[in-house]
Amino acid sequence: MPSLVYAISLLLLVPGLCTASTTLLHESKTELFLSAPSFAVVGASDDERKFGTIVFKTMLDQGLDVVPINPFVPESQGIPCLHALSDLADPARTAISVVTPPAVTLEIVRQAHALGVYAVWLQPGAEDAAVLAFIANATANSPTRTSYIHSTAQGLARRSSSPCAIADPDAPDVISTIALRR
């Protein structure tokens, strides 16, 4: 118990420490995500205006080995869509970007965890309390090494209403991150 009191006191006495450690945590998870040999975008579609398609196209344009996952459309950007995470060739070596409504996201993170997906990046708006609770429980109580990135847990918020703003390096979306790092 004394160490908990000490940690809380330290956080209260040193303004900005929590923000700095959150930024470092986000940076290390971002690097981990981008180190994957392959990628998938859950929610990519044939609609050029949808954020999932924008994310997928950005990853393709950056030369990443990426596949779209969407059981409702045959292809995105001319590449056939996989129907489920279980269709991935090697989930343990694949990082996935999730651009789906929270109710769908919950099932996606459950599947990702069960398959041992390398890393999962929930794009802004993809998470809700149930998704975050699952992730907290899964990371605390399981030997699976899936890494999760999500805006709510990192204490980050989009500073733009645009779904693909790249001017803000703190924006917790994969488009901004890839554009700034490549």
From TrEMBL:
Tell me the first and last residues of the signal peptide: 1-20
Q: Which UniProt keywords apply?
A: Signal
- Domain CoA-binding: from-to ranges: 33-126
Q: Sorted alphabetically, which Gene3D superfamilies does this protein's record hold? A: NAD(P)-binding Rossmann-like Domain (3.40.50.720)
Task: Write one Pfam family the protein is assigned to.
Answer: CoA_binding_2
Q: Which domain of life is it from?
A: Eukaryota
In Swiss-Prot or TrEMBL terms, this protein is called Succinyl CoA synthetase-like protein
